[in-house]
Amino acid sequence: MFKPTVEAALEAASVLFNLPEYRVLATVRDEAGRREVFVETPAGEAACPSCEVFTARVHQRTQQRIRDVPFDGLVTVWWIKKRWRCGETRCHRATFTESTEQVPPRARLTTRLKDRIVAALSGRSAPWTGSAASTESRGRRPCVS
Ligand SMILES: [Zn+2]
Asked: How many whole angstroms from its chain centre is CA 65?
């Protein structure tokens, strides 16, 4: 018989949330009842963008809000983002933050959200159709920045 564990629940949440390269750490409701999802990448190392030497030294973790597709209504997504310390002594860059295909450097929204906005603006599809559609978000105009 299947016995649920915390790990199994988080894996299930990650599968449902379906943001490539990320895993769900926690989901909560804030005081107003809005849903928040906390995610991280499972990366154990990263290459320095300057010297390309890999490092496994995490300097610190920061919390960055990223805008993502609605999931049966709006969801606030928080990325627990790693700042890596470059281990190469001759490198001028002391630290750097992680980035992914879904959230490139300096991006504030996911690639999948950007793709949906571009498709909607070009008339190829409605912006929030599919499993992520909600009446709450249908009337809103997307904001690309
Ligand atoms: Zn470096």
From this structure: 8
pTM: 0.78
- For residue 110, the CA-to-ligand 1 centroid distance in Å is 26
User: Residue 16 burial (CB < 10 Å; 0-12/13-18/19+)?
Assistant: exposed
Give distance in angstroms: CA of 100 to centre of ligand 1: 18
3-state DSSP call for residue 36? strand
* Separation CA 55–CA 46 (nearest Å): 6
Spatial contact of 105 and 84, defined as CB atoms under 8 Å apart: no
Q: Which residue has the tokens 């999948």?
A: 112
Q: Please compute the mean of the pLDDT values over residues 95-119 and round it to a whole number.
A: 94
Give the chain's largest Cα–Cα span: 56
96 Cα to the center of ligand 1, angstroms: 9
Given pLDDT bands bounded at 50, 70 and 90, which one contains residue 71?
A: confident
Mean pLDDT in residue range 113-140? 65
Q: Which residues contact 137 (CB under 8 A, 6 or more apart)?
A: 70, 73, 74, 128
